[in-house]
Design a protein that fits this description.
Largest sheet: 3 strands, antiparallel
Strand content: 15-25%
Number of helices: 2
Shape: elongated
Distance between the termini: 120 Å
Strand order of the largest sheet: 1-4-5
Helix content: 55-70%
Number of strands: 6
Structural class: alpha+beta
Length: 171
């Protein structure tokens, strides 16, 4: 009997501990809930900040990628002006000062284009990536695949072609 009393007392003690633990859990769970809400809001804020940072970096990268596109587009609009000035240089003129003025204008335009990174396309060997063949001719001194005549100069920025060179090539 003595044994049964001890077991009963132990059971009562265990039950009492469980009830006290539940009360303690309820008291702890309320601040834990508040803490978890704070953690959730903090996490959301960090995610929002990271998302904004990614957006800022992406738009900056897009802007940098647009600069060469815009530059090439604007330069393409100026190239006919350079062609016309070059034609004016080739025309016969009796006034040397006038011709010298046209040469100075042409040189300043070419220098401005060089500052923007624009280069003339090499006119010696035919390269379909840079040249547009509009005519094939036979030539005695030039070998096959060489550029015989340039009808319109081509221009590029780095490896990006702004305008293909129009050429005739040797068969």
């Amino acid at each position: 009997m003595n044994k049964k009393k001890k077991e009963t007392q132990e059971v009562e003690v265990v039950e009492t501990d469980v009830k006290e633990a539940e009360v303690v859990d309820e008291a702890v769970s309320e601040p834990e809930q508040e803490l978890s809400e704070v953690d959730i809001l903090k996490d959301q804020l960090l995610r929002q900040a990271a998302e904004y940072d990614n957006y800022r970096k992406r738009t900056a990268k897009e802007r940098l990628e647009l600069v060469p596109e815009i530059t090439a587009s604007n330069i393409a609009e100026l190239l006919p002006v350079a062609d016309n000035i070059e034609r004016a240089l080739q025309a016969e003129c009796s006034d040397d000062n006038y011709k010298k003025g046209i040469e100075m204008i042409y040189e300043s335009l070419i220098q401005a284009l060089k500052k923007l990174g624009v280069e003339e396309i090499d006119e010696e060997d035919f390269n379909p990536a840079f040249h547009q063949a509009i005519q094939q001719i036979e030539h005695d001194t030039l070998e096959s695949g060489k550029v015989a005549e340039v009808f319109q100069k081509g221009y590029k920025i780095g490896s990006r072609v702004i305008r293909f060179a129009m050429v005739s090539i040797v068969r």
